[in-house]
Amino acid sequence: MKFEHLLSDINGFGRFQIIIEDGTPSSCKMFLEPQFHLLINPNDSDLFIVPCQNGWVYDNSTFKSTIATEWDLVCDQKWQNKATATIFFIGVMFGAMTFGSLSDRYGRKIMLLVSYIFGMLFGIASAFSTSFIMFTVLRFFTGFSITGIVIVSSVLSVEWVDIEHRKLVGVLDSLSWTFGNAMIPAIAYYVTDWRWLTVAVTSPLALAILTWRWIPESARWLIANGKFEKASFYMQQCAQMNKKEDFAGQMTPETLSSIIVKERKDRTYSYLDLVRTPKMRRLALLTGIVWYGVASTYYGISFNITGFGLNIYLTQFVYGAIELPAKLSVYYLLDKVGRRNTEVASLLGAGVCLGINIFIPRGMSVFRTSVAVLGKGCASAAFTTVVLYCSELFPTVVRQNGMGYNSSMGRLGVSLAPLILLLDEVWRDLPQVLLCSIALLAALVAWMLPETQGRCLPETIQDIEDEPAGKCLAESRVVDTTEIPLKSKDNNEVAKTY
After folding, report:
1. pLDDT of residue 495
2. Within a domain: residue 123?
3. How many CB atoms lie within 10 A of CB 465?
C-alpha cells in the first residue's frame, strides 16, 4: 500500500480508501475505522479491512444504466453478471434440443414462426424486469425461444438448394450475424439504457414475423413425411421461379409419392436415432465435440471484449467487422480445400492466436487486441463452416435433430465460456490457456470427420451406415429432388434437375 494514495483518497465517510497491488484504488474494500495512525506510522499493518458497506457510485459516462448498476452486480456479486450470460445460453441449449426435435416432427416453417413469436415476447418482457431473478428467468426463456431461428433457418436454407449453391447460402446466412454484430455497437452508442437497448435489439423480430408467410416449407421434409400434396405445391413454385416451367407439371403428388424410400415415411425420428447405429453414433460424438469447441472459442473471445484495454464500442465494431473478410475467405476455401480442411485450419488459427496472447504483456493493449481480433476472425470462419458442414453430414430424416443436438453442444460451450473467464482470479492467463486448448482439441476432432464437398445430401440413416465414411451416393438413398433426376419405382426418369 502507498501512503500518498491513502492520504489523498479519504472518502466522504472519513475512511481511507484501500489501494490494491497495482496502485489503483479498490472499489470493493474499505477500512472499518479511520486510519489516522498511518499518518504517524505508514508501515503499520494492523488494518481492519471490510467489504464496502455504503453502496457504490457508478461511472455512467459509457452507459446510462446496465444490469450491473441496476442490481449492484459488482464486487462479491459480479459473478452474477457473468452468470446471466450463462443462464441465457443454457436456455439456448435446451431450446436447440427442443426445436430440433419438433422441427423434424412438425416441420421447419411452423417451428420457425413459434421461435419468432416467443423470442420477441420473452425478449421484450425481460426489458421490463423488476428484479434480477425475474430478469434471469425471462432471459432463459428468451434464449430457449430464439435458438429455433438459427437452427431451423440454416437447415431450411440448405434443404432448398443444390450442391453448387449450398456453400453460397451457408455463407450468406452466416453474414447476417456479421452485419448484426457490426450494428450492435452503433445501437448501443445511442441507446445507453439497458432496458431500451434490449427492446431495440429485439424489435427486428417483428419484421421477421411479418415476412414469415413467404417462407416455403422444406420439400425434402414434406416428401420424407409423406406430405406429397404440399411438396408438389412448393416444388412447382420453385420450378417456376427458376424458369423451369417444363418441370413444374411433372412435380405431381403421384410422381413424388413414387420416389424410392428405404425407410418408413410414417416413422417418428428422435434424438435416440443419432446413437442407435455405429456410424451415426460416431458422427454425433465427433460433431458434438467440434461444436462445443467452436462455440466456446468464439464466445470466449467475444465475451472478453473489455479484457484488452481499448474502447468497448470500437472493439465490438472491429470484432464484428473482422467477420466479413473471414466469411468471404470461407466462401473461397470451401471449394478450394474442402469443408474439413477449412474447419481444421480455422480452429488452429483461433487456437494459435489465443496462445500468442498469453505471452503478450498486458500493457500492449493495441497489439493484444489485434491478435484477439484475428483470433475472432478465425473463430468466426470456423463457426460459419461448421454450420454448413454439419447440415451436410446428417441425413434429412434426422437433420434437424442432428443440428439441434449440435447446437446444444455449442451452447453448452457458450454457457461455460463466461465461467471460464472468471478463472482469471485463480491465474490471470488460465482462461486463455483453456480456450486455446479447447480450440486445438476441436481442430484435431474435426480432422476425423468425412469430407462432404461435392457430395449429395444423405436422406436416410441407412445412407450413412451403408457407405464408407458416410459417403452419400444417389444410387443408395432417397432421391435428392434438387440435385439429380427424379426416379420412379420402375427406375424411369420423370424429371430433370432444376
Report:
1. 36
2. yes
3. 15
Secondary-structure breakdown of the chain: helix, strand, coil percentages, each rounded to the nearest 5? 65, 5, 30
Q: DSSP letter for 272, please.
A: G
DSSP 115-179: HHHHHHHHHHHHTT-SSHHHHHHHHHHHHHHHHHHHHHHHHHHHTTS-HHHHHHHHHHHHHHHHH
Give the domain extent around 369: 67-215+274-446
pLDDT in tens, 186-220: 888 888 888 999 999 999 999 999 999 888 888 87
Mark whether 337 and 192 lie in a shared domain. Answer: yes
**β pairing state of 17-19 and 49-51:** unpaired
Q: With b meaning 16 or more CB within 10 Å and e meaning fewer, what string describes 24-46? A: eeeeeebbeeebeebeeeeeeee
* Residues 376 and 300 grouped into a single domain: yes
Instruction: Judge whether 399 and 339 are in contact, CB under 8 Å.
Output: no
Q: Do 75 and 51 touch, CB atoms closer than 8 A?
A: yes
Residue 334 lies in a domain: yes
Residues 209 and 100 occupy one common structural domain: yes
Q: Is residue 487 part of a domain?
A: no
Question: Which residues touch 182 (CB under 8 Å, ≥6 apart)?
Answer: 317, 320, 321, 323, 324
Cβ–Cβ under 8 Å, residues 112 and 156: yes
Higher pLDDT, 424 or 443: 443
- The string of pLDDT tens digits covering residues 248-261 is 666 667 666 665 45
Q: Tell me the one-letter amino acid at 475.
A: E
Tell me: do 82 and 35 sit in the same domain.
no
Picking from 139, 92, 148, the residue whose alpha carbon sits closest to that of residue 117 is: 148
Q: How many CB atoms lie within 10 A of CB 459?
A: 28
pTM of the predicted model as reported, rounded to 2 decimal places: 0.67
- Crossing angle of helices 163-190 and 365-393, in 10° steps, is 140
- Domain count within the chain: 2
